Amino acid sequence: MLIDIKNLGLQDYQTTFQIQNQLREERSKGTIKDTLLLLEHTKVVTVGVRSQEEDFLIPPKDLEKKGFQIHQV
Description:
Elements: E1 4-11, H1 13-29, E2 35-41, E3 44-47, H2 60-65, E4 69-72
Parallel strand pairs: 1-2, 3-4
């Protein structure tokens, strides 16, 4: 089994999420083969839909001041 390997380097979370969704759609249609993405995310915190601000050890505003992006997944 051969796969494509893509080295994306440093990427923000949202951009990479969009790339993954596009690749998933193409793979499910059979237009591309399996793909392995190699990358490093910029500073990011992902939280679930039920997360609340009090769940954070560091307030979200402080994280954002330090350059972190916060994404709900």
